[in-house]
Amino acid sequence: MKKYFLVMNIFGMGGTVRTVLNTANYLVDKGEDIEIISLFKRQRKEFFYIDPRIKITVLHDVTSWNGQRKNIKTKIGNFLLKKRPVLIHREEEARHFFSLMSDFKLYSFIKTIKDGVLISTRPSFNLFIAKYANKGVILIGQEHLNFSIYSKDMQQAMLKFYPKLDYLLTLTDDDTADYVKMFKNTKLVVKKLTNSIPDIGELKSPLDSKTIIAAGRLVEQKGFDLLIQSFKQVIRTHPDWKLKIFGVGKDKAYLNELLIKEELFNHVYLMGPTDNIQEELLKSSIYALSSRYEGFGMVIIEAMQCGVPVVSFDCPKGPSEIIDSYNDGILVENGNIDQLAEAINYLIENPLIRKEMGEKASENVKRFSTSNIGNKWIDLFEEIEKSSIHIRS
């Protein structure tokens, strides 16, 4: 059975793109027939490595669209691009990228898939395939966040349409238990299947650099404003340490203003995106996660794999399932910038403990290896093959 992954933009950066490619690259190497459907192409070149054996289908290439052409196709396209989407749920966080054009292209392509396994990677896509995919296609939705995070409108849509999926894959034990309970009277199968990381061998940070890093989209969820305020406390006693924040997003201007207001521009640096977070991790001594909420925290396991201890808010729902506090990292009260600063200072002032935690982190995180998680995907596909579930009514 062919496997399709439906993503927003496989050429971009971010945790979802990384984990989809980790999985897809592994699966195609094991002989699976993999196609990635990328609704958009917003960069000319992919940010992360894509195995050339994976078929990439782009539905709307923003990089090559020329709205100045005078032909009828361009005129119709420009008209559709100006119209708001009607098929994507209105609570889609990136809805400003969508249009009637993306509705039309996504619907048209989904209707061409007559069989196989279709895996979607965000709530609005889960709802979309539940509504519009053809019978005979196995539908797998990935759920990266806790149900309580969503608006009432999105929750109602999920309760109504998720039972039309065949499988819902979650990232944490808590989320799995919540969704199992929620859909216990339906045929939807809820399974935990976490993100994964590829093997990097024996590469480890020496943890001797006076550098703390963080990475992610520059948006409210990631809490970089809280991290900056916390780091202001850190440099009072450790002014020779610096904080590097990697990522892009709509809050960049706000964060720059905050750095100026707090006079931290010589201590905190907005580094922009990087296509090699591993290289940056290997040059750091502490990773700080300040998210207000987090589905799983892909970058946590990437940091731990490099032997870098993570200091994190104990936000819902992911970090506590990865970090064993004061063993391979430190968890502090969610949103408590004082405790975050204290934990960072603790690791700065205790280099031996920092290195012990780093060693344990690199060992404990092996459970998230791509080979381990990839084999669970293969087990799932074998379960589907053996089951009569593919005869959908």
From TrEMBL:
* EC top class, as a word: transferase
The residues covered by the Glycosyl transferase family domain are: 202-362
The name this protein goes by in its record: Glycosyltransferase family 4 protein
Q: Which GO terms describe its molecular function?
A: glycosyltransferase activity; transaminase activity
- Which UniProt keywords are listed? Aminotransferase, Glycosyltransferase, Transferase
What is the top-level taxon of the source organism?
Bacteria
Keyword Membrane part of the UniProt annotation:
no
Q: Does the keyword Transferase apply?
A: yes
Q: Give the EC number(s) under which this enzyme is classified.
A: 2.4.-.-
Q: Which CDD domains match?
A: GT4_AmsD-like
